[in-house]
Amino acid sequence: MSELDVSGGGTARQRKVTGWTVLGCLVAFFAVVAGVNGFMIRAAVTTFGGVETESSYKAGLAFSRELKAAQAQQARHWDVRAHLTPGSETQWVEVTARDARGKPLTGLTAVVRFNHPTDRRADVAATTREVTPGRFAGSAAPAAGQWDLVIELMNGEERVFLSRNRIVVKQG
After folding, report:
1. Could you tell me the strand order of the sheet in which 135-140 lies?
2. What are 54-68's pLDDT values in tens digits?
């Protein structure tokens, strides 16, 4: 039987670990960690669209005002409907507003917005005008995907109706 040399056959050079080697490895490790943290912080700050509420305190104070407005809106029993017609790049929006007796609502202005669910920077406002009493029409160019369709009917500066619905926009 013959003997096998499992040591690698040659003379291996052993490196001596000194204090400078340990310091260099330590500095390199923390430099990599700091670099990755810097990259992640920059990515988070530049891609974050903002918080939903600027001030939780002010939002809490506005809650009772919004609750009263919602109760008044419910008591009116208005019938407000929206119809979207997809185009190649734009969405045609028609809003019809009728009172509890079915008569068209006049003297109001409609504000229609496509709010992106996760990024306020992508919100798109539709330019609308009253084409007939109680019927508003306009267009906007939101990208394909999920949106919150927000419809506000205004009587001067006072909002008298608010509707927020999740929709899916498809390009024609």
Report:
1. 79-86, 91-98, 135-140, 124-132, 109-115, 145-155, 158-169
2. 778 888 888 888 899
